[in-house]
Description:
Blueprint: E1 11-15, H1 21-32, E2 35-37, H2 60-75, E3 79-89, E4 97-107, E5 112-120, E6 127-130, H3 133-143, E7 150-153, E8 164-168, H4 171-184, E9 190-194, H5 202-219, E10 232-238, E11 252-258, E12 265-269
Parallel strand pairs: 1-2, 1-3
Antiparallel strand pairs: 3-4, 4-5, 6-9, 7-8, 7-9, 10-11, 11-12
Helix pairs in contact: 1-5
Amino acid sequence: MPKDSLFTNRIAVLATMHQKEKVIAPILETELGIKIIVPQDLNTDDFGTFTREINRPGNQIASARLKAKKALELTSETLALASEGSFAPHPSIPFISSNREIVMLVDEKHNLEIIGEEFSLETNHNHIVVESVAQAFQFANKIGFPAHGLVVMFSESPQCSQQVIKGIITAEKLVEAVNFVLENSPTGKAHLETDMRAMYNPTRMNNIAKATQDLVRKIKSLCPKCSTPGFEIRQRIPGLPCAICYMPTSLTLTVIYQCQKCGFSQEKPFPHDSKYADPAQCMYCNP
């Protein structure tokens, strides 16, 4: 970014208590010239937990926005960042888990909101019900333990669990937690799942870094008319023609960029640098 950019030498407060600053701060401080701080009295679990004791107050973007706004309230700054992750079956391959990470920048001074995003199949998101410590360790080895943490609970539903034991990253703690649940569970079983909090999940942390890099790309995309950062794709128009029959497919033919400040828009055809779609994606050639 140029030295006179909107963000140079400003303080940005990052709404996290899960050490996300480790990957977000180095990228944004280098690329944007901002100084990132983390508020000490912000409990982001109030906006939802992966272990489901507290539900999200809205969708992924709305939750990130609430985190950022809360961080601004606590610090009286005008620039905030918030990250939010979600895990779900892949929309096209339901038996594979996917991870969508967003990193949001909220600038109250210039009335801007810019979102970086990463959608990835790189995730260890998983769970299992076990009846022994041996089964627990088989699962642990599968998900990358101890570099990746585990959660042990009585039931998949936290409302039915007497205790949720999080942040397990040693063999001793895993044995202790599983034995405790097995000995006190009415079913004689324990529910294990991957700890998806960033500081216990380096795979997820890597996806957060990629979302941060996407945020930088979008910030550096300036409106051709007013030079406001965040000139990004707002609409995708399908219809890329098949390379064999030339019939339109569901793949993107044109994207429309739009400035959130002045409203200027610009069309760009063939965003993936190809004028034709693979016939395998054609409903006529490959029904």
